[in-house]
Amino acid sequence: MERRAVGELVTRKSYKHDLLFRISSIKQERAILHGEDIRLEADAPLLDLVKAEERELEKRRQKGKEQEEFSYRLFRQDYQLMKEKRDYQSTDGYHYADYFQLPAKVLHLDGDQIYLRKCIALYQRLGLQVHGVHLQEKEMPYHIQELIEKIQPDIIVITGHDSFSKSKGSKHDIRAYRHSQYFAETVREARKVTPHLDQLVIFAGACQSHFESLIRAGANFASSPHRINIHALDPVYIAAKIAYTPFMEKVNVWDALRNTMTGEKGMGGVETRGLLRTGLPYLADDDFELSDDEVLGE
After folding, report:
1. Which domain holds residue 38?
2. 253 falls in which pLDDT band (50, 70, 90)?
3. pLDDT of 235 higher than 80
4. Within a domain: residue 98?
5. Which residue from 7, 145, 210, 222 lies 20 to 30 Å from 157 (Cα-Cα)?
6. How far apart are CA 166 and CA 163, in angstroms?
7. 129 vs 103: CA distance, rounded Å
8. From start to end of 90-213, where are the E strands?
9. Rounded distance, CA 67 to CA 237, Å?
10. What is the DSSP letter of 177?
11. Could you tell me if residue 65 is inside a domain?
12. How far apart are CA 40 and CA 25, in angstroms?
């Protein structure tokens, strides 16, 4: 048998090589697998794994890049429409005036360090202030309150890896999920600090997560209503939509989902007030906000 190694990219023979995984750990001839592009955690016998060929890797990577760029372009269009509306409202439609903005601050908790780096890069590309923290899903409930007090975020993203196992119970039983209970506990701990849904906006969940429990725990948005896999970057687009929506407007759930790569089958939520605050006058010496080029840079 060909030896497998931690960090190696593989597919599963038993699932007809449908998804690309990274080996996270190996124990007793079984491997814990993390999706390379989706937030799914699985385990499989080493005999079931096949090393991904470089040609196949390049093909999958190119497809992934095209998908990510498509979502980014959609968000750029959405952002431009929001900016034009904001410009008009800030000046009553009669004359031009410079204004400043107070941007939202994001705290992003991620169970996957590689995904965390990818998400931070996208936050920066979208012009959002982010404080990223890598924590194992089981540890998140014990650290969230101190992180909120230290960072004072407006938005919290609680994510990592998850999965549903039919052998452990029905889809309504949270014990049948790998990490959903920890995500829900983390949300509940966060709500002890800030109960109001519009004062602290929370996204929680990963692939196949127990959506109902996360919403009941106090999340504004969560995954996964249809127990499907979600893309690693989808939570960032939810956070960005809320961050760039004026605080006097509600974020329509569908509008928040339309820029994600997963859509309404993988993500859902409740109406939530936007967090962007605009002020006048803008003084050139002040550094309230990034320029538009910096907000959505190429």
Report:
1. 9-52
2. very high
3. yes
4. yes
5. 7
6. 10
7. 7
8. 100-102, 105-110, 129-134, 155-159, 201-204
9. 13
10. B
11. no
12. 15
